[in-house]
Design a protein that fits this description.
By secondary structure, the chain is an alpha/beta fold. It is built from 16 helices and 13 strands.
């Protein structure tokens, strides 16, 4: 029996972004193995018939001794399993899984570069040092002639190719993780109650959460027909995460609601009027293609990743990054123009059907596996 090993930073991320791919392989007789950290969602993976393996690759940790043990745990796992395919997803799994697979001569290695991460998008002395180290580690991890790297947008791919981390011929471009169009069915705008402006993301600074909150505060001083919802968790392992204190402070403003992690994000999107993501940079934001599939107007930033998920002035608006005034202007405009919300939503659904169908994304991955 063929074996596929997925190495990922969190099991819940695997469930939301790669489950359809794994199920497709399982249907063809593959034995599916997932290596990640401990998380409450592991039980769901096991219930699906997948094999779970704990590896100590906590995000945000930089202790070199612990990181070495994390790398060694992946080397031991791959050596024991001898998988036919190793698929590494997100930064630390790509680095450690790529190095381990190269050392052990695995026949087929695929890595998914899902954005550049806070090390590259948030500037600090620590991150500048980590960037230098990360580039060298990427060169080592991606230097395997048997490895193919999947990028979600052309900007991230150019970053890697221009720095001679990987040659263009070993890269592929797949725009995002796809969306199940039947699960995220088109839904008309709500006809009653307050209008809801939704941000669906981890509560990180680089997701534009503080810009969203600043805009919400100012819009709420001018009108009472709207609420601002944030669907997502804080991430204590990430230094740019909001804190419990931040949530407590902002929750005191009437009209701002922190919903936490939502296992059924479809019904949250369905209950919203428009979706906003003022991110600083993305790989390809799943939240936006889900919003487009449901038929919601989108406001996002004119940055890599986000700009690819929206057709400006047709399915939503692109605004300059970190510009709260522009964000406020577009939010007011869409709240005041129901017809534009409807038109953007209808066009967004068509855009999702033509570009983001999960079956097409699965097929693109399978073609890489078989190449």
């Amino acid at each position: 029996m063929y074996k596929a090993l997925f190495i990922v930073n969190r099991p819940d991320y695997f469930l939301s972004h790669r489950l359809a791919l794994a199920q497709s392989l399982a249907d063809d007789g593959y034995e599916i193995h997932i290596a990640s950290v401990k998380h409450q969602s592991v039980s769901q993976l096991v219930s699906l018939g997948f094999h779970f393996h704990f590896v100590d690759i906590e995000r945000g940790r930089t202790n070199p001794i612990k990181e070495l043990f994390g790398l060694l745990s992946i080397v031991k796992l791959i050596k024991r399993l001898q998988p036919d395919i190793v698929h590494c997803i997100t930064m630390k799994p790509v680095l450690y899984g790529g190095i381990a697979a190269r050392l052990l001569g695995i026949r087929k290695v695929v890595v998914a570069i899902a954005g550049l991460g806070s090390v590259f998008t948030t500037d600090s002395v620590k991150n500048r040092v980590l960037r230098l180290i990360s580039v060298q580690l990427y060169k080592l991890a991606l230097g395997n002639a048997r490895l193919t790297a999947i990028f979600q947008n052309k900007h991230d791919r150019a970053f890697f190719v221009e720095r001679n981390i990987i040659p263009m011929q070993r890269t592929r471009l797949i725009k995002g993780s796809g969306v199940a169009l039947d699960k995220f069915a088109f839904a008309p705008l709500p006809e009653s109650g307050k209008k809801a402006v939704l941000l669906s993301a981890r509560l990180l600074r680089e997701k534009g959460v503080f810009e969203f909150l600043d805009a919400a505060k100012q819009v709420l001083t001018a009108r009472t027909d709207v609420e601002f919802w944030l669907a997502g968790d804080i991430d204590p392992a990430n230094p740019s995460s909001l804190t419990e204190q931040d949530i407590e402070t902002w929750s005191k403003i009437s009209g701002i609601k922190f919903l936490g992690f939502q296992s059924d994000i479809y019904n949250v999107i369905k209950a919203s009027t428009l979706v906003v993501l003022p991110s600083y940079r993305e790989g390809f934001p799943k939240a936006l293609i889900e919003a487009a599939a449901v038929g919601r107007a989108i406001i996002t930033t004119d940055v890599p990743g986000c700009e690819d998920a929206v057709i400006n002035n047709e399915t939503g608006f692109l605004v300059p990054v970190k510009q709260v005034d522009s964000l406020i202007e577009k939010i007011h405009y869409l709240l005041n123009h129901h017809d534009r919300c409807v038109a953007f939503g209808l066009a967004g659904r068509v855009y999702a059907e033509n570009n983001f169908d999960i079956s097409s994304v699965v097929l693109a991955h399978r073609e890489i596996y078989m190449s």
